Predict the structure.
Amino acid sequence: MRRGLRFVPLALLLTGVVEVAVFVLLGRWIGFGWALLLVLAASLLGLALLRREGMRAWRGLRAAVEGGRPPGSEVSDGLVGLLAGLLLAVPGLLTGVAGLLLTVPVLRRLVRGQVQRIAERRVSAQVAGDLFGPRRVRVRRGQPRPDAGPGPAESAPTPPPAAPGGAIEGEIVEPRRP
């Protein structure tokens, strides 16, 4: 995680430089007064969106907890909505466009799925299960594939027999973290 954080200051500086360049180009094209008005309108829209999304996320979280459902999807959707509002509230045209794109339902679902996958990787399996509900696993019946087994020096463990009723006993092993 720390490896990615070392580039944050550089990314913020680069974003600021690009935002200023885009503002100057837009100001020359439509006039600086109109460009300034556009940036202020986007920021006000972002502040309103922040408030709306914050309240919506809180209501969704409370409804999920009161209904006994895992609140993970409401939390990740709320995070994406808050990010959209924050990007709109920050003065800048490119960040405003990025914030507006996050309000499009199709893109919002894609980003919400990414947020959920990142969260699932960063927390333990038990916490991920509590947040996002039961995990889905793939189970294959039959002989293991030759390329999926252990190396030639190790012997492959025999799979446990299927229990009556078609259930297969086993365990979910967390993937190794890099």
User: Anything to note?
Assistant: The chain has a mean pLDDT of 75. The chain has one domain: 7-135. The chain is about 65% helix and 0% strand. The helical segments are 2-5, 8-30, 32-66, 72-89, 93-101, 105-122, 125-132.
